[in-house]
Design a protein that fits this description.
CATH class of the largest domain: Alpha Beta
Protein name: PHD-type domain-containing protein
Largest sheet: 5 strands, antiparallel
Strand order of the largest sheet: 4-3-2-1-5
CATH topology of the largest domain: Herpes Virus-1
Strand content: 15-25%
Shape: elongated
Distance between the termini: 72 Å
Keywords: Metal-binding, Zinc, Zinc-finger
CATH architecture of the largest domain: 2-Layer Sandwich
GO molecular function, one term: zinc ion binding
Radius of gyration: 24 Å
Pfam families: PHD (PF00628)
Number of domains: 2
CATH superfamily of the largest domain: Zinc/RING finger domain, C3HC4 (zinc finger)
Oligomer: single chain
């Protein structure tokens, strides 16, 4: 029993010192600095604690914007913004940086910009500039085969988006 009290006294003393350091301004949180082409983990929050689909996602930094915002790119080619505080450095030496556009999926409920239908998501193309969708059969002229690589809706190209 005396050993347990000794350990408790040591822990209380350590907590007292830590608290004094934090209150006295001796603690400075480390600022994470990321560079283009770094790999990061993106912190994802689950809506409930029972959500097991949330995990670590490894992304590549495409651009670092001034107010601490990162432009991140996944293996599926999707690009989005997130703040530095939601990212952690990835130090894995074996990260596969190749793009696999077959991983990209059409999000549920995406409507075709021409017919307005949400059916046939497997036959829908999503513009890589505006993220809107079109059925391959609704386009003029219709497209029979899914194009390889990035696809941009012709009007987005002509409008300079």
């Amino acid at each position: 029993m005396p050993a347990a009290f000794e350990n408790l006294a040591i822990a209380q003393h350590r907590d007292t010192l830590r608290s004094a350091t934090i209150r006295g301004g001796g603690y400075r949180p480390s600022i994470r600095r990321f560079c283009v082409e770094d790999y990061v983990y993106l912190q994802q929050t689950a809506p409930t604690t029972l959500d097991v689909t949330v995990g670590r996602t490894t992304l590549r930094v495409q651009e670092v914007l001034p107010p601490g915002v990162l432009m991140l790119e996944g293996r599926d080619g999707v690009v989005w913004k997130d703040h530095v505080r939601n990212s952690a450095p990835c130090h894995l030496p074996n990260v596969d940086g190749t793009m696999d556009l077959s991983l990209a999926i059409v999000r549920a409920g995406l409507r075709c910009m021409l017919c307005g239908s949400t059916d046939q998501a497997a036959h829908m193309l999503v513009c890589d500039r505006c993220s809107r969708g079109w059925h391959m059969s609704c386009l003029t002229p219709p497209i029979d085969v899914v194009p390889t690589g990035r696809w941009v809706y012709p009007r987005c190209t002509s409008e300079g988006r």
